[in-house]
Amino acid sequence: MGYYVNPPGESKEAFLRRVGIVVPSDRKISWESVPKGFLPVVLVNNGVFTAAGICYSKAELDEFTRFDDPRRREIYLVKIEELRQVSDIGRHPDYAG
Asked: Is 75 helix (H, G, I), strand (E, B) or coil?
């Protein structure tokens, strides 16, 4: 089950630019480097649409950042409290508020 950013009243891109911290594209982010209180969000360009997937575990982060995936991606660190307002991440037992 995946969790995705879907902010009301603004685009995913605008939300991430407003509240996220950009991870430089020349870095591979590790689960251990994610600050407490934040989760990585990967904005993936699927051609026709974009998706902003919330990486709620190491396995999810590894899947979204695979080197054999040719899609254009941007990675942001976003406070969990912000993500609860624009996604279903609060349903995940580790991130319920």
From this structure: strand
